[in-house]
Amino acid sequence: MKKTILITTAFFLFNMVNAQKKYFTKTGNASFRAGTAVEDIDGINKSTTCIFDAGTGDIQFAILVKGFEFKSALMMEHFNENYMESDKYPKSTFKGKITNLDKINFQKDGTYPVIVKGSLEIHGVKKDIETTGAFKVTGETVLATADFSVALEDYKIEIPSLVKDKIAKTAKIQINCSNSVLK
Amino acid sequence: MKKWKKILFGILMVAFITTGYGFYMYTKKPADVRTLSANYELSTAALIEDYNKDETAANVKYLDKVIAVKGKVKEIKLEQATGQATVVLDSGDPMAAVTCSFYNEELASVKKLTEGSEIVIKGKCTGKLMDVVLNKCSIEK
Predict the structure, then answer these.
(1) B124 closest CA partner among A174, A28, A91, A45
(2) b vs e for A92-119, b when ≥16 Cβ sit within 10 Å of the residue's Cβ?
(3) Cα(B15)–Cα(A181) distance, integer angstroms
(4) A14 CA to chain B: closest CA distance, Å?
């Protein structure tokens, strides 16, 4: 009997410690590719904010659309003015939950597959998505990575017919955020 | 005969210039923020105050502009693998700082910085999440 109580208390204590841990970064990378065989179109944002709670599985990303860097000035201009309308919609966000939290051991180093479900807001349009990624736990840091695609149409991003063969209908998004424990 | 030649020459010139201009625009690189002079020079505290007061108005004023911001180094983050360097400047407000993401080539000079020292960083304002974010940064002073 005593043993059971001890184990349960230990279990709850352990859970509490776990629940208190939040991970955070302001310098994550998010990049996208929307080019075709005709032309490469890619941008990278190095100031992606990511926060997640190892106890509840809540996860959030936020990004400033103006912060994407391009190799061409024209591409940057078109991206901001014509497609993303970054003056009108300066931020993109993701709010969701890790659905397989029980499979991730933040106390043990290793790479864990992660399933995330939530609402992605781009260009002022919110849409529910589900995607897989990975958490690489190394001591106190967790590297969160994900690769997924979004259809531009879903977010009301219109491509003029003149450049249709240059821009892909879906953009490949890559997330690479090295999070550390939030104190 | 002469008139005909003149017209042809004119058409060729126009075609040549448009192609040239098109090619120039197509291959033009985004402006190197390091070579631009700052639109605004201010302290981190003043920048954060403007954003805390009215984010929309602050965005109209600062978004996409080159800003030279003066503040104390709170945190230096170096990513050796990617060459990415980020400096967080303290603003006096514990909830909001200024995050400065540097050009990859600036990694070496960022390495020489020490926490707590006062510096001026120049970069392009991209807006505010929790912090006000500048990208394409370099050390001004």
Answers:
(1) A45
(2) bbbebebeebeebebeeeeebebebebe
(3) 60
(4) 30
Domain count of the fold of chain A:
1
Residues B84, B120, single domain; the answer is yes
Looking up residue A37, the CATH number of its domain turns out to be 2.40.128.110
ipTM of the complex: 0.81
Q: Which pLDDT value is given to residue A126? A: 94
Q: What is the mean pLDDT of residues B7-14?
A: 91
B133 min Cα distance to partner chain A (Å): 7
Optimal mutation site among A22, A26, A60, A176, interface B, most CBs of chain B within 10 A: A26
Q: Do residues B76 and B127 share a domain?
A: yes
Q: Could you tell me if B94 and B73 lie in one domain?
A: yes
Q: Identify whether residues B122 and B111 lie together within a single domain.
A: yes
Q: What angle do CA A25, A29, A30 make, to 5 degrees?
A: 120
pLDDT more than 90, % of chain B: 60
In chain A, residues with a C-beta closer than 8 Å to the C-beta of B29 are 71-73
Range from A1-15, A108-122, B26-40 that averages highest in pLDDT = A108-122
Q: Count A/B contacts: CB-CB distance under 8 Å.
A: 71
Q: What CATH number does the domain containing B38 carry?
A: 2.40.50.140
Structural domain range at position B83? 33-139
What confidence score (pLDDT) does residue A172 get? 93
Flag whether pLDDT at B82 surpasses 90: no
Chain A residues lying within 8 Å of B77, measured CB to CB: 27
Query: Which residue in chain A is spatially nearest to B100 when comparing CA positions?
Result: A47
